[in-house]
Automatic annotation (TrEMBL):
It comes from Marinobacter pelagius. It catalyses: tRNA(Pro) + L-proline + ATP = L-prolyl-tRNA(Pro) + AMP + diphosphate. PANTHER family: MITOCHONDRIAL RIBOSOME PROTEIN L39/PROLYL-TRNA LIGASE FAMILY MEMBER, PROLINE--TRNA LIGASE. GO terms for molecular function: aminoacyl-tRNA deacylase activity; ATP binding; proline-tRNA ligase activity. PROSITE patterns: AA_TRNA_LIGASE_II (PS50862). Residues 38-470 form the Aminoacyl-transfer RNA synthetases class-II family profile domain. GO terms for cellular component: cytosol. This is Proline--tRNA ligase.
Length: 569
């Protein structure tokens, strides 16, 4: 590609609303542009990287024996009613009507569609196991789309669904997919960890998430210092020995964030952002008709405060809830408000709707010098910082008895899940087994955040000059920068020649033939993050050399013109 004929949409200024480095650099390097909240156009430069990720994912999925399909993005409500998710899925589901008034949604995921397909197409155990995947646009109406394509509303996912006659077969495919995911993330060049994940509402089954280690990650993951044990924080909490730290009361049950309608519903009610704010939700007691139970504990994420919770909303579920001054609190409770945590510290909130039997405690409020009273803390959960309450902290013994735990931030780029018969049962997807008996199929599902990977890679690979692409997903592998080519036919010609030679050898090459100052060209190529750069200049050519610099190199080096290609190979 010639830069003079290519959309190099680089920007000097850091966009104000881009909070994390990958978002900033994707905008500045001219990879993406925002259309509306959570909706992005991929510019030619960005699309090249996205397609390379896609290609790697496709190759590895094909290698695993999975079959590629392409399902409609728009799905009829009937299937979702059949599985029960039309009412369960919550606000992330974008619903719409056609001209006849029929209900549809824009698929956030495709379990229903694939289950419907396979129950019609597959009749016998002989056709199983089978694994189907697609690489396709999903829509999730994220409560808080942010970080560019990292948490977009429209994004590209690879989703796969496997079907089996029994659990043993599902286990085998699950292992194959685990290996396939490792191959994908190895090839993309990410520093990642597979971690045990909680299977939440579906229960019982296995689940693993693949996390890219990065401080901007939205999830906490837990590792052992001395073994392979790794889990997301929800899973780690579920497994953790109570130890010395006071555990939630025994009768409390944990409900975890992924896909939990209860968390979403309660967070909505409170006017807070569940994905960002609520770390763990504890519920106790009988569920009411809305699936909510009496005691609710919202354990806020470390970087969030009660200030985000509207007092009037809290009042709705925790009566009586009043505002009181520090003085009033002290005299009413004997508690020093400061001992609980000043307003701006992260505070867990535990609210009991029936409340009466629990001792009253105090927590921060959304007004300076005021605290909420009448908020009921579960007795066995002490007041304290989030870290104390989530029941797993750095330095805890690892559940496997080897080493201690370390907690890091992760970006979820992949998720594999044994679904069991959740969808096949509700949607009656059966096959005849070897005895001619009808059995409900076992299913697995496997997701990769294809577009998120592009951003996650940048989070791990950048410096103050811009992106540093791993070769495998760089938009271009090699940049050839010609200096003064508009005045020097020798330089222009040598640039063209090298360009053809490298292209013929199979490299993706960007020939920067723009009539721009050298400094501008160098800065752009560095910002865009092209891994290898050759500079063609009159001075170099006079000595028979090109200048080479790897994007991570400190020093430039001169290379004889004839050795440029062998040097790269
Ligand atoms: P998250 O916890 O980040 O919301 P999820 O658990 O809801 O993700 P899954 O349903 O497991 O997501 O979907 C499979 C993969 O799709 C995720 O592992 C992630 O990489 C990607 N993904 C999910 N939501 C988004 C999004 N809003 N933008 C970009 N990628 C996403
Ligand atoms: Mg998740
Ligand atoms: Mg999500
Ligand atoms: Mg997930």
């Amino acid at each position: 590609m010639r830069a003079s004929r290519y959309l190099i949409a680089t920007q000097k200024e850091t966009p104000a609303d881009a909070e994390i480095i990958s978002h900033q650099l994707m905008l500045r390097a001219g990879m993406i542009r925002k259309l509306a909240a959570g909706l992005y156009t991929w510019l030619p430069m960005g699309l090249r990287s996205l397609r390379k990720v896609e290609r790697i994912v496709r190759e590895e999925m094909d290698k695993s024996g999975a079959q590629e399909v392409l399902m409609p993005a728009v799905q009829p409500a009937e299937l979702w009613q059949e599985s029960g998710r039309w009412t369960e899925y919550g606000g992330e589901l974008l619903r719409m009507n056609d001209r006849h008034g029929r209900d549809f949604c824009f698929g956030p995921t495709h379990e229903e569609v694939i289950t419907d397909l396979i129950r019609n197409e597959v009749k016998s155990y002989k056709e199983l196991p089978a694994n189907f995947y697609q690489i396709q646009t999903k829509f999730r109406d994220e409560r808080r789309p942010r970080f560019g394509v990292m948490r977009a509303r429209e994004f590209i996912m690879k989703d796969a669904y496997s079907f089996h006659v029994d659990a043993e077969s599902l286990n085998e495919t699950y292992q194959v997919m685990h290996r396939t995911y490792c191959n994908i993330f190895d090839r993309v060049g990410l520093d990642y960890r597979p971690v045990e994940a909680d299977s939440g509402a579906i229960g019982g089954s296995d689940s693993h998430e693949f996390h890219v280690l990065a401080s901007s990650g939205e999830d906490d993951i837990v590792f052992s210092t001395e073994s392979d044990y790794a889990a997301n924080i929800e899973k780690a909490v579920a497994l953790a020995p109570a130890g010395e730290r006071p555990a939630p009361a025994e009768e409390m049950k944990e409900v975890h964030t992924p896909g939990q309608r209860t968390i979403e519903a309660i967070a909505e009610f409170l006017g807070i952002d569940a994905t960002r704010t609520v770390k763990t939700l504890l519920v106790k007691g009988e569920e009411d008709e809305n699936g909510q139970s009496g005691l609710v504990a919202l354990i806020l994420r470390g970087d969030h405060t009660l200030n985000e919770i509207k007092a009037e909303n809290l009042a709705g579920i925790a009566e009586p809830l009043t505002m009181a001054t520090d003085e009033e609190i002290k005299s009413a409770t004997g508690c020093e408000p400061g001992s609980i945590g000043p307003v701006n510290l992260p505070v867990p909130v535990i609210v009991d709707r029936s409340a009466a039997h629990l001792a009253d405690f105090v927590c921060g409020a959304n007004r300076d010098d005021y605290h909420l009273t009448g908020v009921n803390w579960e007795r066995d959960v002490p007041l304290g910082r989030v870290e104390d309450l989530r029941n797993v902290v750095e330095g805890d013994p690892s559940p496997d008895g080897k080493g201690t735990l370390e907690i890091r931030r992760g970006i979820e780029v992949g998720h594999i899940f044994k679904l069991g018969n959740k969808y096949s049962k509700s949607m009656n997807a059966t096959v005849l087994d070897e005895h001619g008996k009808s059995v409900v199929m076992e299913m697995g599902c496997y997701g990769v955040g294809v577009s998120r990977i592009v951003a996650a890679s940048i989070e791990q690979n950048h410096d103050d000059k811009g992106i540093i692409w791993p070769d495998a997903i760089a938009p271009f592998q090699v940049a050839i920068v010609t200096l003064n080519a508009h005045k020097s036919p020798t330089v222009a010609e040598a640039g063209e020649k090298l360009y053809e030679q490298l292209r013929q050898a199979g490299f993706d090459v960007l020939l920067d033939d723009r009539n721009e100052r050298p400094g501008v060209k160098f800065a752009d190529m560095e910002l865009i993050g092209i891994p290898h750069r050759f500079v063609v200049s009159d001075r170099g050519l006079a000595a028979g050399t090109l200048e080479y610099k790897g994007r991570r190199d400190e020093e430039k080096q001169d290379i004889p013109v004839a050795e440029a290609l062998p040097f790269l190979i």
